[in-house]
Amino acid sequence: MASGGGIARLLIVALGAVVFAAIGVALFVVYPESLADLLGVLVALAVIVVGIRIAGNIAGSLFPGYDVAEVAVEGPITRDGGGGGLPSSPRGTPADDIVEQIDRADEDDNVDALLLKLNTPGGEVVPSDDIRLAAERFDGPTVAYTTDVCASGGYWIASGCDELWARDGSIVGSIGVIGSRVNANDLAEKVGLSYERFAAGEYKDAGTPLKELEEDEREYLQGLIDDYYETFVERVSDGRDLDSEFVRDTEARIYLGEEAYEMELVDHLGTRRELETELEDRLDRDEISVEEFEPDRPLMARVGTGAQQVAYAFGAGIAGLARDREFRLRT
């Protein structure tokens, strides 16, 4: 049985179709006798189609047909979707955009629950935590689900949701942090390059690729990794209600969905349809309607994204120049 809002939307669309049909016929068939009948009919049909779309948009604004928001986190997680020294991957996830979508869904009175689609190998630490915090802030049920990969930063995000769904063959886990640097000291010597230091602060250039890493610098950088790792373990143990030692014992392994479920790293195994059925029961609905939320971007930003994707396709695989400080942290 159609809901009151659904009936209202249909009435608005039907009324819009009739009104624009009348306008089209009057303007392009009846009134201008100099126009050929066929051309008039074609133009009238075009006006009708445009009118139906306009009426549909108006109806959608007045009577939204959704009650669940879906936000997708796909690809490597970074602050802006970029790839550091390399051309930006078009599949990267800009964390700020994801946070904006979740907050917008939270402010939407029609949204009663949030589906967070996770298909990511992880990424930067703080952007991952920003998305997790946004999921925690959402006022209503938050369900994370993955079909392929929910690893590292993706699992960090899932720890902020009420539950995590996966498929039997999903890759889940990798609760760990990694830091890396390129050691180009030997190469620099071979080509006649030398590193000359101008810095204030003993560890200001720790991790610079053009010089050998001193032991105390190695300990300093490893300490940063360890601190981030302890934060990761704390997020997972608190959010997933797991013992912290159990989380550490995973040693950043990845698991297939079935094993992850047995270890209680995942709450449910099932398809998207089964997830929606469960959510219908939770919300006490005969049927739910899911709306995919996407970032609000002005025209020039969308043009910029397209240019960025072209640049990536052209330049993928070309190494970037080493920066003055090249030590990266990621989950």
Structure characterization notes:
With 331 residues, the protein is α/β, with parallel strands linked by helices. It folds into 2 domains: 4-62; 68-330, 2-enoyl-CoA Hydratase, Chain A, domain 1 (Alpha-Beta Complex). Helix content is 47%, strand content 14%. It contains 11 helices and 13 strands. The protein has helices spanning 4-30, 37-62, 95-107, 125-137, 153-158, 185-190, 215-239, 244-249, 257-262, 272-283, 299-315; strands at residues 68-74, 77-78, 93-94, 113-119, 142-145, 149-151, 163-166, 171-173, 178-180, 254-256, 268-269, 290-292, 328-330. It has a 6-stranded parallel beta sheet with strand order 11-7-5-4-1-12, with helices on both faces. It is extended and about 80 Å long. The two termini are 48 Å apart. Mean pLDDT is 78; it is low at 84-90, 299-303 and 305-325. Keywords: Hydrolase, Membrane, Protease, Serine protease, Transmembrane, Transmembrane helix.
Task: Please supply descriptive tags for the structure shown above.
single chain, 331 residues, alpha/beta, 2-enoyl-CoA Hydratase, Chain A, domain 1, 2 domains, 6-stranded parallel sheet, 3-stranded mixed sheet, 11 helices, 47% helix, 14% strand, extended, transmembrane helix, serine-type peptidase activity, membrane
**Which assembly state applies to the chains in this document?**
single chain
Largest sheet, in brief, is: 6 strands, parallel
Proportion in β-strands? 5-15%
- Low-confidence runs (pLDDT<50, min 5 residues)? 84-90, 299-303, 305-325
Organism: Natronorubrum halalkaliphilum
Keywords: Hydrolase, Membrane, Protease, Serine protease, Transmembrane, Transmembrane helix
GO molecular function: serine-type peptidase activity
Domain Peptidase S49: 141-281
